[in-house]
Amino acid sequence: MTTDFNPTNLTAFWGQVTHDIDAYLEGVLKGWDDPCLKEAAVYMLKGGKRLRPLLVIASGYILGIDSVRLIPLAASIECLHAFSLVHDDLPGLDNDDTRRGMPSAHKAFGEGTAILLGDALLVLALDILLSDPSIPRAVIQALSSSTLSMIHGQALDIQGHKTPASMALKTGAIMLWCVAAPAIVAGASEDVYKALMRYAQHFGLLYQVADDWTDGEEGPYFDIQMFKREAWAALDGLEAEKTWVLRDLIEWVYQKACDAKPKTVLT
């Protein structure tokens, strides 16, 4: 996939990103020495939506970056996301037995292996970035900071403090990195950087609500129309002909939220 790749619909764009990320991760995992963790990593990394890699590539598309340069960043964030899922599912946190319609990692491989797998995926995410000398140090530092914010958000979540602020940490911090990293690579202006960050902030909130409602969690009332409106408005100052992927993503997530909205949630 390069900047010459310019499909006119989200499905085609998403499909190409998924193909590229799957191929990259397959190559990375071939180098793993531990057969137990390797099997578990392959298991955990298959079947994901690749939403976060899509955000990376779509943001780079707006900024005119050849996606080949961003594939390592996109693969790194997918490993980090997988780490968070493995640990979130553990009995001490969300205690989920299934993930993506299959047994969660600790059910499939045992709790000890799942803990080590999560640790390994986190380190792998950083190792992918550190292994590429063309990736600015600021990108790696930003990933580290975003990971700490995500963990803080999860800590607030398990203490029952589910607010837009805690949601912005748990999910939004990683979404922010997905758009910030390409902006850093591109040397984007401050205005463009701020616009992308504003988009990711509200898109992340919208996505978290949609995800929670899809999982059957009602939680407190959140204004999903406001999240959608703010995410859409954030893109107004960017190159219109290239923002369509991020705008289509807003519509996709908003519809997902509407379809799953609990009856007790206000319209």
Notes on the protein architecture:
The protein is 71% helix and 1% strand. Strand 1 (98-99) and strand 2 (102-103) form a beta hairpin. It is mostly helical. The mean pLDDT is 89. Helix 2 packs across helix 6 and helix 4 packs antiparallel against helix 8 (164-186). The chain has a two-stranded antiparallel ribbon. The protein is globular, with a radius of gyration of 18 Å. It has a single domain (10-260), classed as Farnesyl Diphosphate Synthase, CATH 1.10.600.10.
* Tally of discrete structural domains: 1
Number of strands: 2
Tell me the name of the CATH homologous superfamily: Farnesyl Diphosphate Synthase
CATH architecture group name: Orthogonal Bundle
* Rg: 18 Å
CATH class assignment? Mainly Alpha
Mean pLDDT: 89
Overall form: globular
Q: What structural class should be given to the helix and strand makeup? A: mainly alpha
Keyword list:
2 strands, 71% helix, 1% strand, mainly alpha, two-stranded antiparallel sheet, single chain, Farnesyl Diphosphate Synthase, 267 residues
